[in-house]
Write a structure and sequence with these properties.
41% of the residues lie in helices and 14% in strands. The chain is of the alpha/beta class and 244 residues long. Strands 5-4-3-6-7-8 form a six-stranded parallel sheet, sandwiched between helices. The chain has a two-stranded parallel ribbon with strand order 1-2. It is globular and about 60 Å long.
Length: 244
Amino acid sequence: NQLFLKQAIASSDGLPCVSQVTLDKLKLYFPQLKSQQQLEVVYNYVDFEGLETYAPKQLTAGKFLLTVAQHRQNKNLDLLIKAYAKLRQTQKIDLDCNLIIVGTTGPETEKLKSLIVEFDLQERVSLLSAINDSELGWLYQNCEVFIIPSSTEGFCLPLAEALHFSDRIVCSDIPIFREIATKKCTYFSLENDALDNLTQALVEVMQRPQALSQQDINRFDRLHIAQQYLDLYERVSRSSSYVF
């Protein structure tokens, strides 16, 4: 696979990357990239246009915190569950406010279920999967806070989607999130006491009004992204020796 990737990169005249962080890593791992190759950051797009949203049938009414992530180690969902439990134990959150985790099962699923039982949160934490866009859109629209505590990401589409819906957002302080969300999030450090850092960030953001604007969301607009790809392909075709 690594050899195939190297060959593909070497033979390509145009390389779109989903983020600047990804592009920088590409240059680091493949220093043989030709200077004449077209390297460009083209973000993934967010498209909820014309979507009629409605609540997932399996949910009960009430306030909730939201995250969207597969059950993998780099997503740090165990940290989020522990932070949510700590907020309840210290009564720094409305005890009627639930936690909803949307994402497919993975290597961490059993660990997450064990944590939920350990903290007696079976009635408060929901693990949802296979929901449709209308249900997902409703969750973004109605959550109290969107949380994304990952340690590594290439882009993180759920973060862009949460920005699209002007959610209050808490996310880990990693370079890709600074790139995607800029100053629109409340960041917490994964260094030192990550659990305390996350709980403090959640307390802080829940005291703020819902005040995000969508002024910078056009970066993730479908038509804007499509135009970037067209522009890239046009430059590649002009510089390439091949006839299209």
